[in-house]
Write a structure and sequence with these properties.
The chain contains eight helices and three strands. By secondary structure, the chain is mainly alpha-helical.
Length: 143
């Protein structure tokens, strides 16, 4: 069975997403999937079996619990299948990455250097509490 056949089902995709965060018990997976999709525990077990049989998940016994983990090999095969199609979305993702980096750089530069003629926030607090020429503070003279 092709990886896209397996991952084409939203329940199985969600299970793989859960397993991407690390090993989980069948019960923990069942709780999330039952709540989100409104399916029975036996239906969740069937999806876990499909993932296991197709090689997307591994299972190991821990006492009475069954712990599932993602197996990256089929995902790597699916990733390789997408290679010829990356040219359709990769330029847009690269451009997005450039814009995000530009925004981070601009924020960093803005935060590192105060604007000309404007004190930094810490300096504004110091200036607000400093005495005026008549000996009062700006805070006291306004209120």
């Amino acid at each position: 069975m092709h990886a896209l056949d397996i991952l084409g089902d939203p329940v199985r995709r969600r299970i793989v997403e859960l397993l991407a965060d690390g090993e989980r018990s069948a019960g923990a997976i069942g709780e999330v999937v039952q709540r989100e999709f409104g399916i029975s525990q036996p239906a969740v077990s069937q999806h876990l079996r499909v993932l296991r049989d197709a090689g997307f998940a591994t299972v190991r016994a821990d006492g009475t619990r069954r712990l599932y983990a993602v197996d990256p090999a089929p995902l790597q095969a699916a990733d390789a299948w997408f290679d010829p199609f990356r040219r359709f979305w990769q330029p847009a993702l690269d451009a997005l990455g450039t814009e995000l980096a530009r925004g981070r750089r601009e924020r960093r530069l803005r935060d590192e250097q105060p604007a000309r003629g404007k004190p930094r926030r810490d300096d504004e607090k110091d200036a607000a509490a400093s005495p005026d020429l008549d000996g009062t503070t700006e805070e006291n003279s306004h209120g």
